[in-house]
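As a next step, we paired sequence with structure tokens, yielding the entry below.
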Amino acid sequence: METFRRMVRSIELDEYLAANIVGRFANIISRLERGLLLNVKEVKPIRTSAAQKLYELRGSFDYGTKQVFHWRLYQVEFSVSGSLVIGLHLHRKRIGSTRLATRIMQNLEIERALLFYRNGLSSFWGLKESK
């Protein structure tokens, strides 16, 4: 949550609006943890053979006049002792001057999440796996 707070602080919003955006994000994460995000616009599987369990959680918040704060969270889900969600990488989506530029920047963020996925998989990200 602290990473998201820092991202929101970087756009210098008034305190009330910043708290509102952070609260709405916290609500989305809470729904994710309870398995209540069913809208395909919110959760999208990343199509790659390297990490078949990698998902992109996407969202945006309006602020100011015609300004939008887009964010992406890459995560994996497991079924051990119930359900487990591991957030790998959270970032503010950057919009390029063209769709191709935006896609290239987004693919770099996905590659970063995949690196965290691959690096943590063998140790199960430091979590103890229940049998």
